[in-house]
Specification:
9 strands; 13 helices; binds magnesium ion; alpha/beta; binds ligand C2E; EAL domain-containing protein
Length: 292
């Protein structure tokens, strides 16, 4: 046992080593132990309405507070867990943390919602709904509506019937979904009508390229038009600058997330950020862009 923990302690977390089976096994073991030893933390990125200047909620984003390597972004460790049971365990940890945070906020009268990212494997679990209900039963006083689940277009399309079923069942529990990174998959818009998803998050690449290329503005304009017809909410991701914000407002897209509004942060930073953002003159000016 001592030998094992010693080995774990010195296992440098390196995606390169995942090329070998043994390397992948060691990485999975290390991540499993991180879960057991509470080395994961959630950071929260605010989602705002740029016109009403309200904070609608936050997205929970997992980080690994690695004892030697510092704070690791999910891209460094989540891909290793793909297709392993461990990804479901991590996913449940994230949901439970979010529910704990929501409970804390609700007891303080803070009405924020939390969006949690759900992996493809989680969504494919036959007992996804049961497990979610089980988790929520741990927090009976909580408003289920304050939890939102984000799924990638690609994971929804892997088994669209299963995705549609889960989404409808969750809706009955008052838990809604958002479609994440919209536009990066093989999006044929027609599948949207089969998915009862109220919110679509436009991928950051659209926002990034919008200012570089007029074609992208037209594409985005078209997407927004379709979403309005389909009565879906739209959130733009990757709003890094005031120019991005202004261009989105010009197109009638008011809900946004991005580094230019707030970076993901520990929960303790949210109150100070909010105060700062509400008083920011540039952001106050963005809110005055005429309605289209
Ligand atoms: P996502 O769900 O699309 O989350 C947005 C990602 O973009 C986050 O990266 C966030 O930090 C980053 N981001 C936000 N605003 C900006 C911006 O203005 N510019 C740029 N360049 N980036 C921005 P992060 O935290 O590294 O997460 C990456 C992805 O990992 C997430 O993409 C999500 O797919 C996945 N992920 C994160 N947490 C979890 C989790 O708890 N469970 C699962 N299954 N996946 C997660
Ligand atoms: Mg997301
Ligand atoms: Mg996204
Ligand atoms: Mg993404």
């Amino acid at each position: 046992q001592a030998k094992l923990s010693g080995k774990n302690r010195f296992h440098v977390f390196d995606a390169e080593s995942d090329r070998t089976l043994r390397g992948q096994h060691a990485s999975l073991e290390r991540i499993r132990s991180a879960l057991q030893h509470q080395e994961f933390v959630l950071h929260y990125q605010p989602k705002v309405n740029m016109r009403t200047r309200t904070v609608l909620g936050v997205e929970a984003l997992i980080r690994w507070a690695h004892p030697q390597q510092g704070l690791l972004a999910p891209g460094h460790f989540l891909p290793v867990t793909e297709n392993h049971r461990l990804s479901v365990d991590i996913g449940e940890w994230v949901i439970r943390q979010a529910l704990l945070q929501l409970t804390d906020w609700q007891s303080q009268g803070i009405g924020l919602s939390i969006s949690v990212n759900i992996s493809a494997m989680q969504l494919q679990q036959a007992d996804f709904l049961e497990r979610l209900q089980h988790l929520m039963a741990e927090f009976p006083q909580l408003q289920p509506h304050s939890l939102e689940l984000e799924i990638l277009e690609t994971s929804a399309l892997e088994d669209i019937a299963q995705a549609a079923r889960v989404i409808a069942q969750c809706k009955a529990l008052d838990v809604d979904f958002a479609l994440d990174d919209f536009g990066t998959g093989y999006s044929s818009l027609t599948y949207l009508k089969r998915l009862p998803i109220p919110t679509v998050k436009i991928d950051q690449s659209f926002v990034r390229e919008m200012l570089l290329d007029q074609d992208n503005v037209h594409i985005l304009d078209g997407i927004l038009w379709i979403m309005r017809q389909l009565k879906r909410n739209v959130v733009a991701e990757g709003v890094e600058t005031l120019e991005h914000a202004r261009a989105l407002m010009d197109l009638g897209c008011e809900m946004a997330q991005g580094y230019g509004i707030a970076r993901p942060m520990p929960v303790a930073g949210l109150a100070a950020w909010k105060q700062h953002w509400e008083q920011d003159a540039d952001w106050q000016a963005i809110a005055l862009v005429p309605r289209t």
